[in-house]
Structure formats: structure tokens, C-alpha cells
Amino acid sequence: MSSQDHPVLSFKDKIKSSWPYTLTVAIIGFVSLWIRTGPSDTVFLSDGSVRFMTNDAWYHMRTLRALLENYPHRIFFDPMTNYPNGSYIHFGPLFDQIMAIISLILGMGHPSSHLVDTVGAYFPAVLGALTVIPVYYIGKYIGGHKTGILAAILIAFAPGQFLTRSMIGFTDHHVAESLFSTLFMMFFMLALISAKERKLRFEDVFNKKFSVLKGPFIYSVLAGVMYSAYQLCWPGGSLFLFIVLVYAIFQYILDNFRNESSDYLGFTGIVTCLVSTILILPFVHPDMGFSLYYYSWFHVVTAIGAMAGFAALSLIEREFKRKKMRAYYYPLLILGAGILGLIITKIASPSLYSLIINAPNTVFGIQQGGPSTILEASSIFYESNKYRVFTLSKVFLHFTPIGFLASVIGILILAAGLFRKPKPQEVLLLIWSLLILFAIYGQNRFAYYYSINVSILSAYLGGLLLDTVKWKEIDQKFKSSVKSPEDVPKAFKLIKVQQIFIILAIVLFLIYPVYGSAMLYSNTIKSTGSNEPNQPWMEACDWLRSNTPDPGMNYNAVYEAPNSGEMFQYPDTAYGVMSWWDYGHYIEIIGHRMPNANPFQAGVGGRRVSINETNQPGAATFLTAPSEEEASAVLEAIDPRPDKAGARYIMSDAKMATSIFGSITTWTLDTEGYYQAYRTGSQYQSIPTARYFNTMEAKLHIFDGNGLKQYRMVHETKAYQTDELGYKQVYNYFYGGKLPEVYTGYVKVFEYVKGANITGTASPNESVKINTTILTNQGRTFDYSQSTTADSQGRYELTVPYSTEGPIANQTQFDTAPSGPYVLSYGDTTKEVRVSEEAVLKGEEIKV
């Protein structure tokens, strides 16, 4: 492009020329915001509380409040979760920092709790709406204003993960990832275009030709800033550095085959990587070594390596041209250099080598074992990672059928363009789109990235259709005819019939499907609410906070991480709460207690690669334990201190006992035998087996802990209709059980205690029984019973977990307890036994 092709316009003329597009993009942005904030009534409740939409959103609000209390210091290590180890926080600091700054400004230095919640709730919706801006510009530089406007419209309505993760109340960093990664690609693209147009050479740097360097330099710096912003929202942001490196290799090879200089590319890449290295370096935790998901030396080394790669590729290309070597040697030399680099890395740093080799599989590969049960980590093309049932249903849900098809066609058109003389921005879009497509093959969570690509590619395709009806002519007529808003109605008369037909086709096939999907989702959220967490979990966590002992931790304090290989030093009053990892953040943030496992998948335990591994202690191991003794051994093993157990409380819900129990077993890699096929009528139904009913989860939730020696129910929430009833019916029908076939508490809280030891004498080898009726806080009763056999001397011992005398100060204020004394019976003898809370907590002996 040259000034002869496009006459230089004055600043005033540029404003006049661009205002219709600026206004249009602004309107699209406001419509996008309106869609995302529509369900506000489900987030801001009538009682004044704010209900966020996911467990990670709740956690971001926890780190935000801690940041505001300790500003500008943020939590990077959280000892209030993954007890007794704590967790390094892999969430980047920038997302929270922006919310904190906004809160401080709006609150004039002292924001109220409700203001902070309001900022947090609206923040993702605003970021989602702002994403239309870089999408517009990328579309514009791919296919002109028409493509940019269409791309902006499509991303404003884009359904699936991009929409859900940018809704009001979905206060998670994913939408920030989308915005900053798109801004990064936009500025990187603009830097390439600017440098290419100015025919930038490295000699211009040495000769200080600022007129040539100014534009590319500014755009490259902004690209580096946006890449850093992206990575400071999510440490795994190295994905987009990888995308740019793969693009660069292709672009260098193409330029070399066309005998063109790639100095413009080398300059852009070096400046971008240099800026990102400088900005990321202060956040590196040296003690992390090399880690993909924490700020470690890996992020600095890869950025420096990328910078060196751009420099080397440019230098090699220059030598090729100087020595007039054959073009096809160039990719072979790149391949050889890459292999040599890996060999050197393996020798110099095996840990870094291992991380580099395994990183592509981490992102692009299909998860196995426990991680395959994480919904967002499953492949978008398979119904199940385990059974690999191919499906396009999730693809169509996230992008609509036509949107996905249009993106594939767009990719094919761009790929075909490689055989002509493609522009750098077209090659960049092609490589970017292909790699994100591969990423969603591995993990559907990256669908929020691919929505950007779908919007741009669909708009690119729509722009090509408009070109077939000479849209450029009508665009020029609009520019010459429309001088003010009053001229717009007259200008519409310039549009021809075939152009109207294409516009209608684009609206009908590209815009309307995404608009319909977006509105359907928004209206569904309006009517159903976010439901995260559900009311039983809210109530159970509130109860936990108010009725269990203070663990002695400063909830919002910023704690230093322990030295490598050492444990965090908790006070003696600290304890853990065992539950499945899904609920860890709720336990911490709403309950202000320390979960053993959390949604970072920390504390899950189990196995990762082979059934031959040792089943590590953790949530999966505890919940699937086949006996009380083995379950208790897991709790004791979680905390290596001999006088401490890993958890004092266990929280179970109906889903853990039924619908997600299979996911729990998957983390142990020992999944067989918990269910069996049973023919009912003309079909088979999967029903629980004896192995399932022997698990600790079943003993606690299905059997209410009946017969357990050291576990007592201390609270339950309201009952709801769940699969629990069917499980009880199966147990009664197939295993001769006598369980009351009723729904019980959706969430149940149990306490792990030493238990009071009831001892006495009876006839040798005589059966001794003890039982009582437990009355829960919901007014429900169930039987608790236990039995043993006296030894040859007539001695017996029974360990019971319930106190008949009620709670005591500074301990669990339980509201579920025996309605009367224990009844001990053997032979013709019946005795009442009362047990104090001290005896239960201290494991004291009660002689009968």
C-alpha cells in the first residue's frame, strides 16, 4: 500500500471518514453489554446479597477482598485451602488489580463491601463488551470495514463459553484472557502491517530512521504490553506466544521462498518479546523453578527464547539471501536448529526440557484419568474422554452449526491463499485459528478463545460474499454521500437488489443464529438464576462458619509461602474440611474454613497414570475407602503430623453420593465394580453394587453414618428430590436392607471424633448391641446402632461418636444429636448410657 493508492487525509478528514464506523462499533458494544447484564436480578438478590456464578468467581472475590484489605499486596499463596499444604494461586494478579483500582476510585479509597461486589459482578460483562473493539479492528485489517463491523456484531452475540464467561456475575479471568489475547493479536498484526508497509529493515534501527520505526515500534510495544496483560491474567498464557512462534516460522519460510525480507517480522517479534520479558519478570517466583501454570522462570526463559528465535531466524534468512542458497534448505535448517535447541535444553535443564515437551500435550491432548472428569477440560468433539464418542453437539452449542462451518470454510480459504501471495495478517489469522481449533480438540474450555476466531472467520467469509456484489463501490458512495447523520437515509437508496440479497443472507445465516442463541441463554439465566452455589450449600457453609471452632487463621491476611520442601506452620487450632474438590471454594469463602481439596484439583489424591501407583491420600481416596478404618487412615495420612488428622469435618451432598460418584472413582483409576447393568423391561439400567454401598461416601450419605465409630452427623440441610431414593430402593431390594425410602438432607455435615469408649462385661462371646435415635435439625429421625461380641473373658468395647449431653463451649455447636441416651443390650440385660461431649472428643472410657 502506498500514499498514491490512498491519498493522505488530514486529521479532520479522518474523523469525518471514521465516525460512522466508530459509532456503529460503540452501539454494538452497548448491545453486547446489555445482553450480558440482562440477568442482573439473578445476581443482585432482593435481600441485598450478591450471588456469583461459579466457584472460581467466588474465589476471585475472595482474592479481591484480601487485596483491598492489604493493598497493594495480593495473595499468591493461600494457606486457607488445600489443608494442610495450602495452595499457590495460579490466577494472575491483573484481573483482581483492575477490579481493586476501580473499587478504590469509585469508593474514594474506602469502597464498601457491596460496591466491591457490584464492581466484581459487572466487570466480566464490561470486558466481554469491550472485546468487540479489537475484533472489529482485526476484521477491518483482514477484509475492510465491512468485515470488521460484521466481526464485531458476531462476537457481541457469540454464544457458548465466550458468552457464559462474560455474563454478569461470572467474575473469572477467562474473559480477560479473551480480551487481552485479542488485543495482543490486534497490535501484533498492526505492527506487522505497519512494518511491512514501511519496508522496515534492521539497518533502519542502526541508522535511527525514526520515521520508519515509529509506527511499528509503538504497535510492537503495545503488543508486548497486551501479551503481558494476558499472561498476568493467566500464567498459561504462553499458549499465544507459541501461536506467534509457529506463525513466525511459517511466515519466515514463505518470505524466504518469495525472496522477500522478513526484517519487519524480526523487528516486531524482538520488540514484543523484549517488552513482555521486562513486564513479566517482576512477578516470577524463583522458588517455582519451571512451571507452566505459575509465574516461574519458564515464562521468562520462553520469552527470551522467542526473542532469540526471532533474531536467529532473521539472521539466518539474511545469510541465505547473501549466499544465495536454495530456499528449501531454510525450513530444514530451522528444523535442525529446533532439534539442536531441544538437545541443549535437555542437557542443561532436564526439568525445562520435560515441561516444553509435555506442554503441547497438556494444551492440545485429550485428558486422561481424573482430569478427564473436569467438564471444561474435556474435548469439544467427544461426548466422553473415556469412551471417545464423537459428537458435534458441543461444537454447535458453542458456535452454532453455521458459525462453526463458516469458520472451517474461512480457514480453508486462507489456507488456499498460501499458494498466492498472502498478507502477513492473513497467515497470522490462519495459524492462530488452526492452533486454537486444535486446542478445543483437547479442552473445550478454549472455546471462549475460538469464539473470537469464529467471529472473524465468519465475517471474513461474509466480506468475501459482499465483494462478489461489489460492496466496495457502495462503501465508497456512502463515504462520499454521508457527511452527517441526516444523510444516512438518502444513502440507503444507493444499495442494489443483489447487495440487499447478500445482506439478508448474512443476517439470516450468520447473525440471527448467534443472536438467537445469545438471547436464549440470557433469558434462561434470567428465569433460573446462576445457582452457584445452590441454596443447600449456602446454608451448610453458613452453618459451618457459625457453629464450628475458629481455626485460628486470619482469613484475609497475606501469608508467605513456606520454603521449598517445608510445610506451612498452622496453629494447633487449625483443621481441614473434607469434601469433593468442586465445593472447596465454597467451604473456604462462604464457610471461612479450610477445605482439604479445591477446584484447583489440589488435595484430590488418588492416582494419575497407572492403577499400579500408590493411591495417594486425598478426597478421592477417602470417599472411595471400603471401610471406616481405611477412610480414617486416609485422614490421618493427609496430615503428616502424628497428633493431627487431615480433616475434622466431612461435607457430603446428594450429587457426591449419586451422579458424580463415578467421577470421584475415576481419580483413583479404579472404577470397576461400583455399578452393574440390570435389565428393567426392554433396557438395561446401571445400578449401584455392594462395592458402592461399602464406600465411605455411601456409609455417610446413604446410611447417615449409621454404625460408624468416629463419624457423627452434626447438621443437615433441607431435603430435595434426588437420586438418593433410588439408591436406597436398590439397597433394600437387592441387599435386604431396611433403609427408610425417604429423601434426606441434600448436604450433610459430619464430624470426625475420637469417640467415647464404652466398656463393660457380659457373658463370654455374647453379642452386645448399642443403639439410639438421632434427631436432626430438620426434624428427621434415624437409628444409630452398633454391635460387637464380648471376648472370651466377657469384656467388650464399643466406640460411639455421639454425645447425649449436648455441645460444649468452643467446640462444635451441633444441632443433630441423640434424642435420648444410648440403649445398651446383651442377653436379658438392658442399660441406658449417657455420654458427655468431653468423652467423645477426648476418647475417654465410660465403664458400664
TrEMBL record:
Enzyme class comes to transferase
Swiss-Prot/TrEMBL cofactor(s) = Mg(2+); Mn(2+)
EC number annotated for this UniProt entry: 2.4.99.21
Q: Name one GO cellular component term.
A: plasma membrane
Pathway where it operates: Protein modification; protein glycosylation
- What is catalysed by this protein? an archaeal dolichyl phosphooligosaccharide + [protein]-L-asparagine = an archaeal dolichyl phosphate + a glycoprotein with the oligosaccharide chain attached by N-beta-D-glycosyl linkage to a protein L-asparagine
**Which molecular function term from Gene Ontology is one that the record holds?**
oligosaccharyl transferase activity
Report the subcellular localization: Cell membrane
Q: How does it sit in the membrane?
A: Multi-pass membrane protein
Domain AglB-like core per the UniProt entry, residue ranges: 536-657
Q: Does the keyword Membrane apply?
A: yes
Could you tell me which residue ranges the Oligosaccharyl transferase STT3 N-terminal domain spans? 30-467
Q: Which domain of life is it from?
A: Archaea
Task: Report domain Archaeal glycosylation protein B peripheral positions.
Answer: 755-846
Annotated transmembrane regions: 18-35, 88-107, 119-137, 149-168, 174-195, 216-232, 238-257, 264-284, 296-316, 328-348, 395-419, 426-442, 448-469, 500-521
- Keywords associated with the record: Glycosyltransferase, Magnesium, Manganese, Membrane, Metal-binding, Transferase, Transmembrane, Transmembrane helix
Task: Give the principal location in a single coarse category.
Answer: membrane
User: What family does the Swiss-Prot or TrEMBL record give for this protein?
Assistant: Belongs to the STT3 family.
**Stated name of the protein:** dolichyl-phosphooligosaccharide-protein glycotransferase
Q: What is the lineage of its organism?
A: Archaea, Methanobacteriati, Methanobacteriota, Stenosarchaea group, Methanomicrobia
